[in-house]
């Protein structure tokens, strides 16, 4: 399953390579593995998780044609034992509760996994997450390092990922599927331990931990949006209030229908068709057929409902219509952009954090809006990512810098 080859590394990764990968591989490779499909056998897993300080986790699931993901497998590494939990045959409520109480829950690129965890568990946002992908972004500047590359570069362990899109609900799993599933957690704790050592050496442990918990909260919030808030990610500053209302109400209708029929929201209306509805505002089934790319089968089943939603949105009282988002800052004059980028680069170099980790594009756009609307004295108005360890730098350096260019900022956002 694994092999060590002492692969030459780019310089940015050289300091990350564990000094003795052979012993790490040997220890991880000897961990016993137990398949758990009977409810009575789950108690031993719960006890092992409860007594572990660090637990590594992964899931396998199917979500190609359903709204609700079908959880197929939960992989758990307690540091001394690996468990493969046959999710369709088990009640996992107690596991979800216990996982929220362990000291450290290690995942790699936990977005989809935590989304499923929150959906199935009903638990509050976790505060014990360590995402090795986030940690690696601090150490390399690469925001999207996959697990396969991570353990190759850091532990000199090489695995294949050919089974990632296979049918995880089939039983029995193939030998290749089992090896793949086991490998996804077998080396995750050694990876975590090595990254912890590297982060501590650079004084970055607390910052990474904070960003991991921020991500966990963001994922929880995304999973618990009210239906009438689903439209925000599709909103366009060029939409007028009626268009915004149509977008809001159609998005909420689509979400409720997707949930009720257990199908992906894009099976009902794709993003392109959402834009077409907002812009064309169809009034008849014929217009739905010819002015949008909505599938004809969907129109036949739900066209009348959809038209009623559009009409009600158009007839809504102005007081009930959402405001359009502010335009993003855009200007041919690069004075502000260049000054901000210089400040970001300088601070990133001073604290040893990659610039794309220090400041995300969305945070900066939100910060521009805060300053343009003179809300900078309200720290709660700041993006949550800029309220933690970044906040003193943002409030002491970045906001005063942006304010010196406030006229250009407002002009670039169409507010002047």
TrEMBL record:
SMART domains: 35EXOc (SM00474), HRDC (SM00341). It comes from Psychrobacter aestuarii. Residues 240-320 form the HRDC domain. SUPFAM superfamilies: HRDC-like, Ribonuclease H-like. This is HRDC domain-containing protein. Coiled coil: none annotated. Gene3D superfamilies: HRDC domain, Ribonuclease H-like superfamily/Ribonuclease H. PROSITE patterns: HRDC (PS50967). PANTHER family: RIBONUCLEASE D.
